[in-house]
Amino acid sequence: MTSEPITGIPNERYDLVSVLYHVSQGGETTTQYLRDAEEAGDQELIDFFQQVLDSYRQLAQGSWRLLAARLA
Q1: Could you point out which of 2, 54, 65, 70 has its C-alpha 20 to 30 Å from the C-alpha of 14?
Q2: Helix 11-40 × helix 43-71 angle, to 10°
Q3: DSSP string, 10-72
Q4: In angstroms, rounded to a whole number, what is the distance separating the alpha carbons of residues 30 and 38?
Q5: Where along the chain do its domains lie?
Q6: How far apart are CA 72 and CA 69, in angstroms?
Q7: What are the two backbone dihedrals, phi and then psi, of residue 29, each rounded to the nearest 5 degrees?
Q8: Per-residue pLDDT of the chain (72 residues; tens, 9 = 90+)
Q9: pLDDT given at position 10
């Protein structure tokens, strides 16, 4: 038995909004870490945090695409 979500928003839409929010927050945080690495001149950390940021961007874009398809 499935229950009606308390919010009235279907769970899959809510889940996508939540993922989009959290990857956006992660991207903002990682941007600061990237700045810190740049200020320290640590190329290894710069490269790593850039990879993390790229991953967050891909996840955000995928979440947005899936959400938009379900709102149409």
Answers
A1: 54
A2: 160
A3: -HHHHHHHHHHHHHHHHHHHHHHHHHHHHHHT-HHHHHHHHHHHHHHHHHHHHHHHHHHHHH-
A4: 12
A5: 11-71
A6: 5
A7: -65, -45
A8: 455 666 677 789 999 999 999 999 999 999 999 999 999 999 999 999 999 999 999 999 999 999 999 998
A9: 78
